[in-house]
Amino acid sequence: MFDRRADLKLIRRCKLGEEAAFQEVLTRYRAAIYNLCWRMTRNDEDARDLAQEVFIKVFTLLDRYDEQYAFSSWLFRIATNHCIDHLRRQRLRMLSLERDGGSDDEEAEMQIPADGPQPDVVMQRREALEKLEEVIADLPPHYRVITLLRHDQQLSYEEIAETLQLPLGTVKARIHRARNMIQQILAARKYEI
User: Fold this and answer.
1) Which end of the chain is more exposed for a tag (fewer CB within 10 A), N or C?
2) pTM here?
3) pLDDT tens, 89-136?
4) Region 1-94: CATH code
């Protein structure tokens, strides 16, 4: 997903103090780190704060980065651990993606082209995705993060193992258990996806 060789050159420039290199790292990884933080916390403000804290931590710890590993794995590991620590401290109840509505909180109207899927199909897909997101948010953090890294960030099992510093077999087992847990929760809640 990320170019390991290009990252290494970029990180070496960062270690030399090149401001443009720092900006390029931010540009390259900001969206992915924010997305991971948001998916872990389900809160925009927390996700922005956590993502910013992750990059501050990464830049202060850059001299500890071991170049034999992919920078993206190191970065995602720091972000994952930071989010899990935040969740442990806060012990937040994960929020649903649905908004309560109201005049200040209304969602914008969705424009759907006539040649695309019918509005009811779009709505069914959206509701199914929201239910799935809700179930993933209710998983224990170590299952949630592994699910997000696999399906949201589309990391390979090997990349996840490297990122989380886990044996490959543990990664495969946790993904399998997470999928089973998701299916069980969906069934228990009588969600049809």
Assistant:
1) N
2) 0.61
3) 876 344 434 444 444 555 544 444 445 556 666 677 788 788 888 889
4) 1.10.1740.10
